[in-house]
Amino acid sequence: MTRARSRWTAPPRAVLAVRGGAAVLALAGLGHTLWDGVHEPGHALAFGVLIAVGEVARRGAPPEEREPAPLGTAGALAYALLGRSGGAPTTHGVLQVIAVLVAAQLLARVPQVARGSDPAPDRAARRILAVTFAAVCFQPLYNSAHAADQFGAGPYYVLFMLLLLVLTALCDAVLAALLLRSRTVPHGFKSMGGTPLPYGPLLRDELRALVGIGSAVCATGVVMALGVAVAGLWALPVLCVPLLLTQISFRRVAAVRTTYRQTITSLARATEIAGYTPHGHARRVATLCTAVGRELGLSGRELTVLEYAALMHDIGQLSLVDPVPDGATATLPAIEQRRIALLGGAVVRQTGVDTEVAVVVERQADPYREQPISARIVRVVNAYDDLCGEGLSGPLGALERLRLGTGRDYQPEVVESLARVLTRGGPAPVLHG
């Protein structure tokens, strides 16, 4: 039986609500601006160009990058928090902020669609909602002079702006996790039976991501708004440089990580090419391990180590003279499983991969009470995929045998997390034989 081809499901409610809300705001902003006219067209043009350039610069960003257009995001937030320019008060309002953002996004979509890139409507909708949140919190309060009365123009005013951006970032993280919950997890996990993905781990991932590029975007947005308030629009090109350099650095790091992952994936396929393990075994185990790790609340780095270890968990079989039947190490005696695991760890250490990955590979065959959490997950998921072979147990029988082994070999919490993931629809196991 072959595995079903992965796809992204059409999300029914959450995505439609987010897109619908963003569409209503976009129409309201554009309609009001066309009817009432553009206030301070120079500022609208400058920030609109900045946002559009930031959106176009996202070209080449990997799909998993949390914030592919930090310059555009910072520019939009700065315009939402702009109360003065060159010492004079500004007159644009919330609806014009939305109109400028939407117009810039539409302008940036032209070259992206021309070269066949994904327009990413969900990301655009999130951007509109988040920037609207910031503008609604700031513009009416500032224009009514309450902000000046409460905070003045000193450090408390800066802290007030930073607080608004932190709340905006939290709002965006909540939306991002909500959208991910309504969709399929990458690598082929499909929601089934109406059961959504767990919201808590997804939200934790989004919140952890705010510490990186998210903090740089928020800080740059505040600095831009304050710089334009004092020096006028000439401050924009100067203040864009640090974030632009940060974006370039993040892209380079992402490129290195992509190459690193491709190298590990190629090494993992060595056991399949040599005929020691079934086709797709390493990828299936890595996919399920990542889903179980997310279910158990592992952080982004822990999930990365877990994925790499799962991909390379069987590499020790290359040292065997006689291949294990169907590559099913779960059916071997415990002493043989440990020997293969130690051999695999030695191979991983020779490849220059992170030592944490080697430790997980080495300890995957130990009793679970002596294992780190990543090794416990790899052991359970590998055993499940091994036991799903035709003539062994099948999917239901495999889970039953894992539950019977929770006294010594498998951690009960990990087995139950795997069961929940499979209930939502994990990748179908390949039956051997």
Structure commentary:
It is a single chain. The chain has 433 residues and is mainly alpha-helical. The protein is elongated, with a radius of gyration of 26 Å. It has helices at residues 14-36, 41-56, 70-80, 94-114, 121-143, 146-151, 155-181, 199-231, 235-268, 270-273, 281-295, 300-311, 334-351, 355-363, 373-387, 394-404, 412-424, and strands at 84-85, 88-89. It is built from 17 helices and two strands. The chain has a two-stranded antiparallel ribbon with strand order 1-2. The chain starts with 13 loop residues before the first helix and ends in a 9-residue tail after the last helix.
User: What profile does the largest beta sheet have?
Assistant: 2 strands, antiparallel
Residue windows where pLDDT falls under 50 for at least 5 positions: 1-11, 184-195, 428-433
Shape: elongated
What is the CA-atom radius of gyration, in angstroms? Answer: 26 Å
Q: Could you tell me how far the N terminus lies from the C terminus, measured between alpha carbons in angstroms?
A: 10 Å
> What do the pLDDT scores average to?
78
**Number of discrete helical segments:** 17
Secondary-structure element series:
HHHEEHHHHHHHHHHHHHH
Lateral arrangement of strands in the main beta sheet = 1-2
Q: Helix proportion of residues, in percent?
A: 55-70%
Beta-strand segment tally: 2
What share of the residues does DSSP label as strand, in percent? under 5%
* SS class: mainly alpha
